[in-house]
């Protein structure tokens, strides 16, 4: 099979490898579409596995069943499936309390072969848990591949209850920022303000519902947000980028009693200096966000493949797997919103 294998930071090679064997009581998925995620790019351009290479990444996986040993005929050859990368045990304390995003026994997709390949194994444990969803006929593989990145955005906005009439600030206009803008509008936000340093991305995000855009390199973002909110600040502020400075600045964009979410992960070891006195006297709530619980994963999948969600607007580039390095560069420069790779086609 054709694969895109990481041999080290920024060393991704497209090469032939042996097709994996079908796991006992599992299946082999023929990968028809796999999204190129920002976390994949971060992992493939840094020493993410601390020298444990070669490795195949890719976790936004959609395809068809090519081989199956699944019991009871639950999955048939040709079945169209979306595979959520983290399977939750649904038995630990976190899962039973409704927070399976914090599952103590979740499957670690980093340790498995990923989807930047023609075929990927799906284990029996994954089939038994909550990570496999069947695609209805008529839904494109490309649209379904957006389910995974949408799941975390969906969970974040549900958790902080973005709702009718809210003013929302999103810091970062990358693919995740675009998802946040679109979903905030779908949830009824009255005003969506996007802060970013890339003019190209600021222009692109307007099609996803951004009412106002601010380039923080050319103007004071905090002052502009305050001006756009009549001096009050936003109801909710989401820092969806990898910059520690954005997290430190985000608290000053929220109204008294407002909510701030640290959505984007910053480089490991980074420390953020935050004015805790300001947080204290303004009754601010700060949340960290990562992942989605089991039902949020399902709801995000259902939204991604529904007519309500404009999947085709997000997917700006569809490329063969052999062009993965081109896709990485398109994403890093901001020319692409979402790149979807097509193994097998």
Task: Sum this structure up briefly.
With 345 residues, the protein is α/β, with parallel strands linked by helices.
Your description of this structure?
The protein is an alpha/beta fold and 345 residues long. The protein has helices at residues 38-45, 93-96, 124-128, 141-144, 147-159, 175-186, 199-205, 221-228, 244-250, 276-281, 294-304, 311-314, 324-333; strands spanning 2-8, 11-16, 27-36, 60-68, 80-83, 119-122, 132-134, 167-171, 191-196, 212-215, 234-239, 254-262, 285-288, 315-320, 338-342. The strands form three sheets. Strands 3, 4, 5, 6, 7, 14 and 15 form a seven-stranded mixed beta sheet that branches. The chain has a six-stranded parallel beta sheet with strand order 10-9-8-11-12-13, sandwiched between helices. A two-stranded antiparallel ribbon has the order 1-2. The longest helix is centred in the middle third of the chain and has 13 residues, at 147-159.
What value does the Rg take, in angstroms?
20 Å
Mean of residue pLDDT values: 96
Distance between the termini: 12 Å
Characterize the main sheet.
7 strands, mixed
Instruction: Tell me the β content.
Output: 25-35%
H-E order: EEEHEEHEHEHHEHEHEHEHEHEHHEHE
Shape: globular
Estimated structural class: alpha/beta
Poorly predicted regions are none
Q: Helix coverage percent of residues?
A: 25-40%
The number of helical elements comes to 13
Number of strands: 15
